[in-house]
Design the sequence.
């Protein structure tokens, strides 16, 4: 515990240097302005009160900000979990969300204390990119309905099937057309904002886009739905005993595992990306996993959204010149002050504007620029990415990620099981078959195709002494082939193996082993 606290305090030492405190305060204001519209937008898209997004952002600053792990990355509600949260709320209800997030946090703490943080770095990058791409596709499709003021279907297939009807409604209904125009205008501002002069870009693009959309709607008196405001205290609903009792069901545990996997992987991948952006202390992955778990535990107790480390806020923090965790702590304080002092300000934000922000965020989750080069260089990786994304779109988050992980493991096993079969003939007709590489069951069809094509009326010797790895299935199959291949009037197939790798075969092949051992002893 003392080392945990000492490593946390070490991140604040640069505050003794002149100018660092002022720089961190300014960076915290930048992060606050970036986080505010995203916290609200993610909450609305997740089907929960807007204030719960602010609660998660506050916990990410005031709780996780003090904990060791990564000094400069910022935590809060993330677009990457929006789809999963929406599905969980629709299936189990808002009351269960807090219990699910609470158990997710406890599981993350356990994994961090067991030093499992580093293992999340072993997840295939293609699976992670496919996961984010799938989330992006579902997010885009869902928010297109919200942007037009329509109710979005639950499944990805229904979202796709409903698009023609949605576009027809936009074209024929003035209210839908107005809302869609506000959303498209918001997206246009987000796309064009980085191209404006640096003096203008001091204001973060999401805040500028939402503020301009709000001003246009209010100035022209447009009939567009706004964010529903309940108040911070009313929105916080801790899970009850009945909700905690439901955590034992298989469906809920599957959702908890999905939350844990995705939130942890996204946080630790974000930490690796943030480490490349600055020259400060590197991330301690196990401690960062514990910190995320503590944050999610607190969010669960408050009935709020789950949190992850968010690359958009983290990169804004680094770019603004932050040096210590003080900037992310203060960003949480600014969010708290806003939620307490200006809660009614949320009620004037158009839902279509927030939907536009999330459509833009969903597009950024799809690695369009990386897909074509990846397909050219590594077709298997591109296939895993695409399969994961499509599976998430047509099924759900958990099943899509599990499928991606299985495909990644199978692909890795296939690629590492390279084996070469060399056939050469000695004077007198004897044939020597040598296997090199990794002989596993995955390569048995190729191995047997070569072996079964050999003549059955000649002496054959199968050399396995230089095989790097020979699994049980392959060994057993080769022994059976050796016993049955040659004709009855022909010398039986001989097998040369390493005793520690392959047990002596029964029958004629085994009779040779004592003679070879005696010859080796004499030599």
Sequence:
């Amino acid at each position: 515990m003392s080392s945990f606290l000492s490593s946390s305090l070490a991140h604040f030492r640069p505050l003794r240097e002149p100018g660092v405190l002022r720089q961190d305060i300014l960076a915290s204001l930048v992060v606050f302005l970036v986080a505010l519209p995203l916290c609200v937008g993610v909450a609305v898209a997740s089907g929960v009160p807007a204030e719960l997004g602010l609660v998660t952002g506050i916990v990410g600053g005031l709780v996780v900000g003090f904990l060791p792990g990564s000094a400069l990355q910022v935590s809060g509600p993330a677009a990457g979990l929006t789809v999963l949260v929406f599905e969980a709320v629709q299936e189990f209800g808002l009351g269960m969300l807090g219990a699910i997030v609470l158990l997710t946090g406890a599981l993350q703490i356990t994994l961090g204390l067991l030093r499992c943080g580093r293992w999340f770095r072993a997840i295939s990058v293609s699976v992670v990119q496919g996961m984010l791409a799938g989330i992006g596709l579902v997010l885009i499709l869902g928010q297109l309905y919200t942007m037009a003021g329509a109710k979005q279907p639950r499944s990805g297939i229904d979202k796709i099937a409903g698009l023609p009807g949605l576009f027809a409604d936009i074209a024929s209904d003035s209210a839908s057309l107005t809302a869609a125009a506000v959303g498209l205008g918001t997206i246009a501002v987000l796309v064009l904002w980085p191209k404006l002069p640096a003096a203008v870009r001091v204001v973060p693009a999401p805040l500028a886009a939402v503020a301009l959309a709000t001003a246009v709607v209010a100035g022209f008196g447009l009939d567009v739905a706004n964010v529903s405001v309940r108040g911070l205290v009313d929105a916080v609903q801790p899970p009850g005993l009945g909700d905690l009792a439901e955590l034992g069901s298989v469906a809920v545990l599957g959702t908890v595992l999905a939350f844990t996997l995705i939130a942890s992987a996204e946080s630790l991948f974000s930490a690796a990306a943030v480490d490349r952006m600055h020259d400060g202390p590197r991330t301690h992955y196990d401690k960062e996993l514990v910190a995320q778990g503590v944050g999610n535990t607190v969010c669960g107790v408050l009935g709020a959204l789950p949190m992850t480390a968010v690359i958009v806020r983290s990169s804004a923090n680094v770019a603004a010149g932050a040096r210590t965790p003080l900037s992310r702590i203060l960003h949480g304080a600014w969010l708290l002050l806003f939620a307490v002092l200006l809660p009614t300000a949320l009620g004037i934000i158009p839902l279509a504007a927030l939907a536009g922000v999330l459509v833009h965020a969903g597009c950024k989750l799809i690695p369009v620029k990386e897909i074509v080069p990846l397909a050219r260089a590594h077709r298997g990786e591109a296939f895993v990415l695409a399969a994961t994304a499509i599976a998430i779109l047509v099924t759900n988050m958990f099943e899509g990620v599990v499928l991606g992980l299985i495909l990644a493991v199978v692909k890795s096993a296939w690629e590492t099981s390279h084996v070469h079969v060399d056939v050469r003939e000695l004077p007198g007709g004897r044939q020597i078959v040598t296997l090199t590489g990794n002989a596993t069951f995955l390569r048995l069809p190729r191995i047997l195709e070569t072996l079964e094509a050999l003549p059955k009326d000649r002496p054959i010797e199968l050399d396995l002494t230089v095989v790097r790895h020979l699994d049980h299935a392959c060994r057993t199959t080769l022994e059976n082939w050796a016993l049955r291949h040659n004709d009855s009037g022909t010398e039986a197939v001989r097998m040369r193996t390493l005793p520690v790798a392959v047990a002596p075969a029964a029958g004629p092949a085994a009779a040779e082993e004592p003679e070879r051992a005696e010859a080796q002893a004499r030599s």
Notes: The longest helix spans residues 20-45.
